[in-house]
């Protein structure tokens, strides 16, 4: 389920041409909470959660306030369009199971987003694997099982790709206007101080080449 599996599938296509994927900004949760006068309630709820975590141990937890960028990915056959966080701070791909009826899976109204979930029964190419998965993010925890199916993104179709089907989400994910996470990073990358925005409302991810419109020809790493 690591990003390397997805990128290995992409390489054949990427050698042939450069492909771009449109993204858009979700907007700040903090701003939405302030506008609807629910910020204090949210802060108190997260504070209570921290108290419970400290009683159990030293598990890290961070509030979700800032915005992020999402892109559309089709899952299954026929494709079901879901909006995923383009996350350079993780290396896993997962979508929310249509059968998960937790509040966090359905999404909270304060997010301003009508959540879409992956209906595995509607995909003719879906195959569930007999293996569970768990991921601990800085903001919370998710769990479910592994599966394979066809996904499509940025004009690329990938069959039998392994990814996660999420059947449990921590409460914090219910506030996020997204349907899953698309991990673009490597497991060894740093997890702090990731700056993904310079104030724009949208962006582009370029696979298989450089963004000639926004980058100089000489790129240093």
TrEMBL record:
Q: Where is the signal peptide?
A: 1-16
Question: Peptidase A1 domain: which residues?
Answer: 69-221
Q: Which domain of life is it from?
A: Eukaryota
Q: Name one GO molecular function term.
A: aspartic-type endopeptidase activity
Q: Name one GO cellular component term.
A: lysosome
The protein's UniProt keywords, in alphabetical order, are: Hydrolase, Protease, Signal
The protein's name in its UniProt record: Eukaryotic aspartyl protease
């Amino acid at each position: 389920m690591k990003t390397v599996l997805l990128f290995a599938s992409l390489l054949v296509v990427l050698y042939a041409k450069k492909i771009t994927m449109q993204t858009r900004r979700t907007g700040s949760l903090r701003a939405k909470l302030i506008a609807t006068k629910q910020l204090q309630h949210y802060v108190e709820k997260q504070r209570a959660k921290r108290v419970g975590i400290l009683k159990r141990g030293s598990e890290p937890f961070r509030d979700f306030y800032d915005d992020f960028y999402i892109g559309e990915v089709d899952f299954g056959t026929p494709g079901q369009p879901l909006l995923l966080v383009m996350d350079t701070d993780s290396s896993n791909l997962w979508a929310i199971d249509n059968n998960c009826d937790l509040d966090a899976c359905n999404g909270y109204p304060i997010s301003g987003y009508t959540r879409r979930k992956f209906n595995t029964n509607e995909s003719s190419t879906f195959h569930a694997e007999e293996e569970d998965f768990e991921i601990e993010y800085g903001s919370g925890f998710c769990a479910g099982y592994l599966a394979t199916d066809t996904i499509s993104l940025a004009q690329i179709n990938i069959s039998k790709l392994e990814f996660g089907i999420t059947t449990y989400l921590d409460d914090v994910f219910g506030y996020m206007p997204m349907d899953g996470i698309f991990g673009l990073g490597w497991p060894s990358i740093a997890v702090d101080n990731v700056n993904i925005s310079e104030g724009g409302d949208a962006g582009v991810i370029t696979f298989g080449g450089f963004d000639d419109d926004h980058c100089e020809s000489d790129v240093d790493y």
